[in-house]
């Protein structure tokens, strides 16, 4: 018996060949009812079509993979930027997060081994734990744990953003400024720590380790850190958090302790995720151009796929402070 073709499926389902292609490859523009009819014809006729089969014939899939350790606000904004960056190209976007935890070192290797060469033509790795990965496809890294890598990389100015945030709190009159840090294994988190300390030094304020707690970029850890900091007898009058999720958690703890933000406690975050501006008390934060990072990574990758030489293999995008409602001068000016 002759093997069924895409034309046979189209005839059986009563649709065009183009519609069959869209339906079996999950593309837009096909109604659920039509998809069900096409898939039923595929099953009845034994027709097989997939991205893998297509790649075996053409060696190209037309798909860019974005590998993330988890779907949280940062990676979501990066994905939006990648989608925008691919808008004028012929590439589709595949967002992929394997069965792992965010602290699982080496998850990128497993993800790439499953996808490269069969499902994707190139990859963007978001906050990868390792960058020395073997792959048959071009790769661009976003905010790698180790910082600048041999791979083309894109990241934001974490040190400069942290310096500006802490300096702003100092300009408001704060002297006891706490810092809730991010993940110590992530280079950008260490740079935010460095920027905080450099701003204190520049202002002649001694660094106090009692004012620093690890938040790991996680709300639960940030809440514990905030409790410890705000229950101190000589508590801080301001807190700089290494990301917005931590800053929001700190504000909730402050309110729970009866503290008014910003009169009793000023809070600054980092990232400027969409939620930051939508809070009842909009968050002062460092704007990290997350979507621009994603767009830049996408353009770098498509250039590599086109055989072009990158003008720069490491792109550092600027940050800026966004002043909102969670910061004010301390209630009692520093003496």
Stretches where pLDDT is under 50 for at least 5 consecutive residues are none
Radius of gyration: 24 Å
Q: Going across the major beta sheet, what is the strand order?
A: 2-1-3-4-5-11
Total DSSP helices? 12
Question: Structural class given helices, strands, pairing?
Answer: alpha/beta
Helix fraction by DSSP (H/I, runs of at least 4): 40-55%
Largest sheet: 6 strands, parallel
Would you report the number of β strands?
12
The helix/strand order is HHHHEHEHEEEHEHEHEHEHEHEE
- Categorize the overall geometry: elongated
Overall residue-averaged pLDDT value: 88
Q: How far is the first residue's CA from the last residue's CA?
A: 91 Å
Strand proportion, as a percent range, falls in 15-25%
Describe this structure in words.
The longest helix is centred in the middle third of the chain and has 16 residues, at 187-202. This protein has 335 residues and is α/β, with parallel strands linked by helices. β6 (177-181), α8 and β7 form a beta-alpha-beta unit. It is built from twelve helices and twelve strands. Helices cover 41% and strands 16% of the residues. It has a six-stranded parallel sheet, sandwiched between helices. The termini are far apart.
């Amino acid at each position: 018996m002759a093997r069924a073709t895409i034309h046979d499926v189209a005839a059986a389902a009563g649709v065009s060949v183009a519609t069959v292609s869209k339906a079996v490859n999950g593309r837009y523009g096909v109604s659920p009812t039509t998809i069900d009819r096409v898939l039923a014809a595929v099953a009845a006729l034994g027709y097989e079509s997939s991205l893998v089969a297509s790649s075996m014939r053409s060696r190209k899939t037309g798909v860019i993979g974005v590998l993330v350790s988890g779907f949280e606000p940062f990676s979501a904004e990066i994905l939006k930027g990648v989608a925008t960056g691919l808008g004028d190209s012929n590439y589709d976007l595949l967002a992929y997060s394997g069965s792992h935890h965010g602290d699982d070192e080496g998850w990128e290797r497993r993800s790439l081994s499953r996808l490269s060469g069969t499902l994707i033509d190139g990859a963007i790795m978001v906050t990868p734990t390792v960058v020395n990965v073997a792959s048959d496809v071009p790769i661009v890294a976003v905010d790698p744990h180790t910082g600048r890598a041999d791979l083309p990389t894109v990241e934001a100015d974490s040190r400069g953003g942290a310096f500006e945030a802490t300096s702003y709190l100092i300009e408001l009159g704060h002297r006891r400024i706490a810092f809730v840090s991010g993940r110590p294994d992530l280079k950008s988190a260490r740079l935010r720590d460095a920027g905080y300390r450099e701003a204190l030094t520049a202002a002649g304020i001694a660094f106090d380790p009692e004012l620093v707690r690890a938040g790991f970029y996680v709300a639960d850890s940030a809440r514990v850190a905030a409790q410890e900091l705000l229950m101190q007898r000589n508590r801080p009058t301001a807190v700089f958090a290494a990301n917005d999720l931590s800053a929001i958690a700190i504000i909730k703890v402050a309110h729970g302790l009866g503290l008014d933000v910003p009169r009793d406690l000023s809070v600054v975050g980092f990232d400027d995720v969409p939620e930051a501006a939508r809070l009842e008390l909009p968050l002062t934060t460092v704007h990290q151009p997350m979507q621009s990072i994603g767009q830049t990574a996408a353009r770098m990758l498509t250039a590599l796929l086109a055989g072009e030489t990158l003008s720069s293999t490491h792109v550092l995008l600027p940050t800026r402070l966004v002043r909102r409602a969670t910061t004010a001068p301390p209630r009692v000016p520093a003496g």
